[in-house]
Design a protein that fits this description.
Layout lengths: L1 H11 L2 H6 L3 H21 L2 E9 L10 E4 L6 E3 L5 E8 L3 E6 L2 E7 L8 E2 L11 E3 L4 E3 L7 E5 H4 L7 H5 L6 E5 L8 E5 L13 E4 L2 E2 L29 E7 L2 H4 L10 E6 L9 E13 L8 H14 L24 H6 L3 E13 L3 E13 L7 E14 L5 E17 L4 H6 L31 E20 L2 E20 L16 E24 L2 E24 L15 E25 L3 E12 L8 E11 L13 E15 L10 E4 L10 E5 L8 E14 L4 E13 L1 E6 L8 E6 L2 E17 L3 E18 L20 E4 L2 E4 L6 E3 L16 E4 L2 E13 L2 E15 L40 H11 L5 E3 L2 E14 L6 E14 L18 E11 L1
Parallel strand pairs: 1-7, 13-16
Antiparallel strand pairs: 1-4, 2-3, 2-5, 5-6, 8-9, 10-15, 11-12, 13-14, 15-16, 17-18, 17-47, 18-19, 19-20, 20-21, 21-22, 22-23, 23-24, 24-25, 25-26, 26-27, 27-28, 28-29, 29-32, 30-31, 32-33, 33-36, 34-35, 36-37, 37-42, 38-41, 39-40, 42-43, 43-44, 43-45, 45-46, 46-47
């Protein structure tokens, strides 16, 4: 009876739709026939509705599981985020097949049941079937011939970061990522197998977001004093929770199909998509976190500091303290102590995130809509905030016969950032500990009768930017003939970037009497618009033991950039300072429009024999508008091969070796990252009038003969799997050589130009070893433990540079050494007799001078780096952690340390000062600044090998604990989680943070975050 009711309900559902389309007579006839139809249906073809839930061996829900009828595989669905599925009109005697990558396929007879819950068992042997994104095509991980690193959404989700690159740190071999600053909205320096170019901007990788090249934001012209290099990463525009995977292409086989754009590696970002055949599901995710500076330096307290200052004057023979020695002449309270690290950079920053996503679809279509809002404050003050609003969507459709496929995606991001204009981290380390209070009793800034430069005055001078990003992609595919597909990929990318720097008169001491007439405002407006069209033709065919995949296509891309730079000064009131029209004087310092055009033809031939011998050929012919008419086109290509030897007959039955592959590749990629119009004579509008009229001055010499930088890449690798892939190991050796360096060739000053753009015949080599180990130490019904380890040994060096010794680069590079070296003085220690620093006089002229005596070569490149991650699950509990480690040498605090004895605080290490009683002291006798010899020797010390030391570290980069609770059919599940970022750093580094040692910038922060995710 129950089956009859279920069948009746299913059949009656569409009845109202049928009746609406009939006239009255037909309606009566149809209603009269319904009992006959029900009876005959029950008697001859009884169908039922089947639903249930799919879980893993830990009873955790499995989304995305394929549920199909074994007899009719085209009929089916996939499980939702909570693991549930629903099928209509299933024959009562049907067999359901449940399949999911990484799990054993399970077949269950329906046997007239309407509820079928199943539990899938993990099948490690199928993990090699994972498909990775290679850009223009996808390839099974076990069959790829190139080097592709991959991070999945599981490692990116719910972390307390605004940029996914922070989550990637330490997880990929050969990919070294450094966070530039702890300031919200800052950038990242990413090196994929080293640096190929002698120019910093020549080493940027190519970002591809859902098939569309991301518009790289030009370095900020105003934000360099708060954001290192003014660099803002394009992935700031994407919520990490919206990313399905990040693939990084490293070797020639993987990158050559991108030609000139792939020399520095390619970062492929794939956003999440809806699930085919799933019900509409809603997910809401919210988190709240707190951040603080991860590490502080131990500085002198007030008694120690005052003793240093008194000793400095005594050493200089000064008995009467000068009038401006406010800290010790009685002007300031000598009993006062302030921890300025706590006051200036010790605040607690907060970050909050709210996200929703809606996804669903039928058997042929799927969609996903996601929106999020994120806010982060700064450790400087709560008044400074970084806000992001993101909306993304994706729609996919395929025809019932799978001949036509469509995928469309869109992303919109709105970012706003409000910061101080100048970093105050260095002031937090240098201010005298007995300096006056920052505020007066009435809450105004304290200038202590003009004796104190209040560091909080920096809060009056602000830097802010607003950025809007839109990225859209449309991908079409149609099977014209069996095995022959026509594809078309197109998209647009738009970025609007507006920045403003305000320097009101209130940033200065009121005693100066400055009015808003001295206030200044700077505004820059930048817009980047890019479109791309890529038609393609793909042929895939299998016959006997042969598989062939041929892809040919073309690329047309155009990017237009406009910028407007305005300065205004002299305002009636600071209330009008953001409106440059209110300034008494307005100057347009720049108004530019540039266009970049790019065209290419590319192709790929992939051949497999017996699924074990693989050959991959890729090629690309590129054309760029950044070169002269005779140099615009160049060809790039690669060959890659792989041998899956574990499929050979003599190893096919091996019980210990589950997978084994040898692969190698060789190819050439290129780069045109030099900016636009570099080959032309250019003129710039001068701010100086000539004869009362606007004038022009030459700003660049033409050179139509320079051409592409080219990088030759070679790689060999082995990949192994043991014990049904519970142990997976891979190692790769690579060597990249980059020549035709696009740099400015120095010119004599008599030419009127310092350089001319040209190809320098210098050659840079990057080679190294990469090791990866993935294991499953424990796998039981309720408990799983997965562990991954990677380590990379990069080696960068300049192998040739004709004419180096006679060039202006001779003090910057040395053949046979890395391009990251610095030349410094050789510190010999303290003379035990005089207490003065000693340095090696290499030319024996009796003076320490540059470049004759700074002959010590210090390599500040990374020696090795990597990470160790673990994921542990027990029933509804999940626990994971990641340790990141780096071995390197970097500049330490001595490189920026003020002279001991001056009116600046010092690290407690400076207490170890030389004296007759302490001849082994590490620092010269203190001086107030009147001793020119000590001043000069301290300057040498800051530029010596004493200012470079070990900056290696081990960091607990991330830790996460989560619990998932199953609730009811309306609120399917709730996931509670706590996350930590940069929690512990083990290092002997002398400074604030060893990761990024650029002087004076805020280091990455330590963060705790708590959140909940609700799935409906």
């Amino acid at each position: 009876m129950q089956n009859f009711k279920s069948y009746s309900s299913a059949l009656l559902r569409p009845v109202s739709q049928i009746l609406n389309g009939m006239d009255r007579t037909l309606k009566l006839l149809f209603i009269f026939c319904i009992p006959i139809l029900l009876f005959s249906g029950h008697a001859y073809a009884q169908n039922i509705n089947v639903s249930g839930r799919v879980t893993d061996q830990n009873k955790q829900p499995l989304p995305g599981v394929n549920v199909v009828l074994k007899e009719s595989p085209s009929i089916g669905t996939i499980t939702e985020a909570n693991g549930r599925y629903f099928l209509e009109n299933v024959p009562s005697g049907a067999i359901l097949s449940f399949s999911f990558i990484g799990f054993k396929t399970l077949e269950i007879p329906v046997n007239e049941r309407s509820l079928v819950d199943v539990q899938l068992q993990e099948d490690i042997t199928t993990l090699s079937e994972v498909t990775v994104n290679a850009g223009y095509y996808t390839v099974k991980d076990q069959e790829r011939t190139g080097s592709i690193a991959r991070v999945r959404s599981k490692e990116l989700e719910n972390q307390p970061v605004s940029n996914a690159l922070s989550s990637v740190q330490g997880r990929m071999a050969g990919v070294n990522i450094t966070q530039s600053s702890g300031v919200p909205g800052g950038g990242y320096n990413i090196q994929i197998r080293g640096t190929n170019s002698l120019r910093r901007d020549g080493n940027y990788p190519l970002y591809i977001i859902d098939g569309v090249p991301a518009t790289l934001q030009s370095p900020s012209a105003l934000g360099g004093t708060i954001i290192p290099y003014g660099e803002i990463d394009p992935l700031n525009a994407i919520n990490p929770n919206d990313i399905e995977s990040i693939e990084i292409l490293k070797d020639a086989d993987a990158t050559a199909i991108y030609g000139s754009r792939g020399a520095n590696g390619v970062i492929l970002v794939t956003t999440k998509k809806g699930k085919t055949g799933s019900r509409t599901a809603l997910s809401i995710n919210s988190s709240y976190g707190v951040s603080q500076i991860a590490r502080k330096m131990k500085l002198m307290d007030t008694p120690q500091y005052l003793e240093m200052r008194r000793q400095a004057y005594a050493n200089d023979g000064t008995t009467d303290y000068p009038a401006n020695a406010y800290d010790i002449n009685g002007t300031w309270d000598e009993n006062r102590y302030t921890d300025f690290q706590e006051e200036l950079i010790g605040n607690t920053a907060t970050n909050s995130m709210l996200q929703f996503s809606l996804n669903g679809g039928g058997n042929n279509s799927r969609f996903l809509i996601s929106g999020s809002h994120n806010e982060q404050t700064s450790v400087f003050s709560d008044d400074f905030k970084y806000k992001t609003d993101n909306i993304s969507g994706n729609f996919s459709h395929h025809s019932s016969d799978n001949r036509f496929m469509l995928n469309a995606s869109g992303l919109f991001s709105n970012q706003s950032n409000n910061l101080i204009q100048t970093e105050i981290t260095s002031q937090a380390l240098r201010l005298s500990p007995n300096a006056p209070a920052l505020y007066q009793e009435d809450g105004s800034l304290n200038w202590e009768n003009n004796t104190f430069n209040n560091p909080l005055a920096a809060y009056e001078s602000t830097y802010s930017y607003k950025s809007k990003t839109f990225n859209s992609d449309l991908n079409l595919q149609y099977e014209v003939l069996p095995s022959l597909y026509i594809k078309a990929n197109g998209g647009i990318s738009y970025t609007s970037f507006e920045e403003i720097m305000l320097r009101p008169n209130t940033m200065y001491n009121p005693a100066y009497g400055l009015t808003p007439d001295f206030s200044q405002a700077f505004k820059n407006l930048n817009q980047n618009f890019s479109w791309i069209v890529e038609p393609q033709l793909n042929y895939r065919h299998t016959f006997n033991n042969h598989d062939i995949d041929v892809l040919v296509g073309g690329t047309l891309q155009q990017t237009q950039r406009t910028s407007l730079n305005i300065m205004g000064y002299g305002f009636e009131s600071n209330a009008l300072i953001t409106n440059l029209a209110a300034a008494a004087n307005v100057m347009v310092t720049g108004d530019d429009k540039t266009e970049y055009r790019y065209a290419a033809l590319f192709g790929r031939i992939n051949y497999k024999y017996k699924e074990r011998y693989i050959l991959n050929l890729t090629g690309r012919r590129d054309g760029s508008s950044r070169f002269g008419p005779d140099q615009r086109f160049a060809s790039f290509g690669a060959i890659g091969g792989a041998w899956i030897f574990s499929k050979e007959y003599f190893l096919a039955s091996s019980g210990w070796l589950s997978f084994g592959k040898l692969r190698a590749s060789y190819g050439i990629t290129g780069s045109d990252l030099i900016g636009d119009y570099q080959f032309l004579d250019t003129y710039t509008v001068s701010n100086t009038l000539y004869g009362g009229k606007t004038s022009l001055y030459p700003s660049r010499l033409n050179n139509p003969y320079f051409s592409w930088e080219k990088t030759t890449k070679l790689e060999a690798a082995i990949e192994l799997g043991f014990l049904k892939d519970r142990i997976q190991f891979s190692t790769a050796w690579y060597r990249n050589r980059s020549g035709n360096q696009l740099v400015g060739i120095p010119l004599p000053g008599t030419t009127g130009f310092s350089t001319i753009q040209a190809n320098l015949p210098a050659k840079v080599e990057n080679k190294g070893l990469e090791f990866e180990l993935n294991t499953t130490p424990v796998q039981t019904e309720h408990f799983n433990w997965n562990s991954s380890f990677n380590i990379s040994f990069p080696d960068n060096k300049l192998i040739s540079f004709p004419g180096l010794e006679g060039s202006t680069y001779s003090n910057q590079y040395v053949i046979g050494y890395p391009t990251s070296i610095i030349k410094v003085y050789n510190y010999e220690g303290i003379d035990p007799e005089t207490g003065l620093y000693q340095f090696t006089d290499y030319n024996d002229d009796g003076n320490i001078t540059s470049p004759d005596d700074n002959q010590v070569i210090e390599d500040i490149a990374v020696k090795y780096f990597g990470g160790w991650s673990n994921q542990i699950s027990y029933r509804q509990w999940e626990f994971s952690f990641l340790f990141q480690f780096v071995n390197q040498r970097q500049k330490n605090y001595i490189s920026m340390m003020p002279r001991p004895g001056s009116m600046y605080n010092q690290p407690v290490e400076v207490l170890d000062v030389w004296s007759e009683e302490n001849p082994d002291g590490k620092y010269m006798p203190y001086s107030s600044g009147t001793n020119s010899q000590i001043n000069r020797l301290h300057g040498y010390l800051s530029n010596s090998n004493a200012a470079v030391s070990d900056a290696s570290f081990i960091r607990l980069k991330n830790i996460q604990l989560a619990y998932q609770l199953q609730i009811n059919k309306y609120l399917q599940s709730a996931r509670f989680y706590v996350q930590g970022q940069n929690l512990l750093t083990i290092s002997d580094y002398f400074g604030l943070d060893p990761e990024f040692s650029l002087s004076g910038y805020l280091p990455p922060l330590k963060t705790w975050s708590f959140g909940i995710q609700l799935n409906f």
